[in-house]
Amino acid sequence: MKQLIKQIAHSLGFHISRLPKVDKKKLIQEYELVTPNAEYSPWNIDASFVETYNIIKPFTMVDQYRCFELWRLIEESSKWQCGSILEIGAWRGGTGALIAKRAKECGIAERVYLCDTFTGVVKAGPEDSRYKGGEHHDTSKQIVEELVFNRLNLDNVSILEGIFPDQTAKEIEDLKFRFCHIDVDVYQSAKDSVDWIWPRLVSGGIIVYDDYGFRNCDGITKYVEDQMLCKDRLVFHNLNGHAIVIKK
Ligand SMILES: C[S@@+](CC[C@H](N)C(=O)[O-])C[C@H]1O[C@@H](n2cnc3c(N)ncnc32)[C@H](O)[C@@H]1O
Q: What is the pLDDT of residues 54-109, one digit of tens each?
């Protein structure tokens, strides 16, 4: 306690020796007023998020904070009049199912398309120092179906199996999109996905990149930073491992 009082006094610009009789309660109140207070944690009190996250948790590699950000951004994207939703890199379906659940809750009428090779990462190249190809093959379309259709009882999801966009994009080429989650781990897959979706993304449409700034995914960091040079999009670096792009 003595140490804490010292720290607080110091942060308020007082020297402890000039405070022989410290009113501890007053000092702490003052401290709380001037220090940043980011204790607001809606991911703990949004009942639907908590319930959904607990169901999808064993099916995702993505942490609670990034999951909550996807949850919130889907809600934001529901302000646009139209547009389907796309996830590239579904793995066992965790984030895709969470996105679809929120889309349904927010009244988004269009479908959510979940894409994966189900044989692991593809197109690893010189920009990717850790990924070699084939990682995360420990999944299947059936695992995603079990989560989405049986455990969460969703009816707004279609699963596209194969390399995106090369093998599966033709099934959705006439659609417009409001939101896209790119979780593919490597540069070339991210680039090909964005090149495909960009002309189909509505104005104000959102792309969320997972793995931005992750040591293992330097290709994704490089790709996002390339996009900072583009004048037709806003690029946000979120410190939680997401990068967010909004189309002008
Ligand atoms: C990190 S995992 C995705 C994690 C998932 N979003 C979750 O909730 O944990 C990356 C996935 O991307 C898939 N993938 C990578 N490139 C792809 C591509 N071009 N087309 C389809 N799937 C791809 C891999 O097969 C792998 O399952």
A: 999 999 999 999 999 999 999 999 999 999 999 999 999 999 999 999 999 999 99
User: What's the CA-to-centroid distance between 93 and ligand 1, angstroms?
Assistant: 10
The CA 136 to ligand 1 mean position distance, Å, reads 7
Least-confidence region, from 15-19, 151-155, 173-177, 190-194: 15-19
Distance 185 CA to ligand 1 centre (A): 7
Ordered structural domains, the chain, with CATH: 2-34 (no CATH), 42-247 (3.40.50.150)
Structure tokens at 136: 């995360």
- Residue of 15 and 182 predicted with greater confidence: 182
Is residue 116 within 6 Å of ligand 1 at its C-beta? yes
**How do residues 12-57 score in pLDDT, each as one tens digit?**
555 555 555 667 777 777 767 666 677 889 999 999 999 999 999 9
Cβ of 187 less than 6 Å from ligand 1: no
Closest ligand 1 atom to 87 CA: 6
CA distance 176 to 115: 16
Contact criterion met (CB below 8 Å) for 110 and 56: no
Whether 184 is in the pocket of ligand 1, judged by its Cβ within 6 Å, is yes
Rounded distance, CA 91 to CA 141, Å?
Answer: 9
- Side chain identity, residue 211: D
The number of the ligand 1 atom at minimal distance from the alpha carbon of 89 is 12
Are 109 and 78 in contact by the 8 Å Cβ rule? The answer is no
pLDDT at 9 over 80: no
